[in-house]
Amino acid sequence: VGARARVWAAGAALVAYGVALEFAQEFVPGRSFELADMVANSAGVLSGTIAGLWLRGVMPAIGPWRTAVE
Question: Is 26 helix (H, G, I), strand (E, B) or coil?
């Protein structure tokens, strides 16, 4: 599996984690389930994933992270 596929899989896992946490908040006193929070969390993961992939392609190979995800 390629590096990009692993990055997208990690992003999908983070979105699922955010959704699960949002549902769990329903059972915490003083917290509530909010669909808008789920959308905001997912948008943050998506924008971070896209920015990370873009930076990975733009930045020169100066750090150890380049070899770790190749």
Answer: helix
Average the pLDDT over 2-31 and give the result. Answer: 90
**pLDDT, tens only, 23-37:** 999 899 998 889 999
Q: What angle do CA 54, 36, 30 make, to 5 degrees?
A: 125
Judge whether 65 and 34 are in contact, CB under 8 Å.
no
- The whole-angstrom separation of Cα 18 and Cα 26 is 13
Copy the structure tokens of residue 56. Answer: 């990975």
Return the sign of the alpha-carbon dihedral for residues 64, 48, 4, 39. positive
The model carries a pTM of: 0.72
